[in-house]
Amino acid sequence: QAMLEKKATIMDKSQLGDKHKGVATALPAAAVEGAPALPKWMEFVKCPQRDVVMKTGPARPTNCQTTCWQVLNSMPELIALFCNLKNLEIVQASRKAYKTWGSATLHGQSLLSLLHRRDEAAWMKRAIGSHQALADLEKAVVPGFLARDLGCLALRARSGSPFDTLVTTMHMPAEPKTGQGK
What pLDDT was estimated at residue 27? Predict the structure, then answer.
């Protein structure tokens, strides 16, 4: 270990050249205030990308809703709508949803407005409400989190013609610290 420590102090970015540029950015590692110091030998095996995070301090905490939405939104062929539970207003939409309906049809509108048959709106609202009640009652690792299939429904395309799709709802817990409701 003493030899590795000595190497770390002798090595300089200018001595490494372009071939070892990635290693050079990891030397020396700055410890985050209050975090335990890493052994010197760890400086040689650290990822340069992660070193930036360590130097600037821990990342601000993220929440379940944001994380889940980012995962869903990263799936290119998935139509996903992030809605407010209270009135089912569409807050965010995936790329595929924008391609299907356009932003004017989605933002600020009700999820129920996308149904081809208006008489299914009351059923869908009850189904989403009852699934949320189940999510709140369930003794899960993350209380309030639940994913359930609603089944096949006919939605209205931008042109007005119907298309069938399998609808799955994902209920996420409220996060008062971030100001995000259910």
Answer: 36
Q: 50 and 109 share a domain?
A: no
Strands 146-156 and 162-171: antiparallel
Confidence band for 91, pLDDT divided at 50, 70 and 90: very high
Q: Is residue 156 assigned to a domain?
A: yes
Looking at 42-56, 76-90, 113-127, 153-167, which range is the least confident one?
A: 42-56
d(CA 182, CA 86): 8
Both 156 and 114 in one domain: the answer is yes
Q: What's the chain's average pLDDT?
A: 74
Amino acid, single-letter form, for residue 81: L
Task: Check: CB of residue 72 under 8 Å from CB of residue 83.
Answer: no
The DSSP H or E segment spanning 9 is helix 2-10
* Domain identity same for 71 and 133: yes
Range of the domain at 28: 2-56
In this prediction the pTM is: 0.61
Say which CATH number the domain at 121 has: 3.30.450.20
Terminal-residue alpha carbon distance, the chain: 52
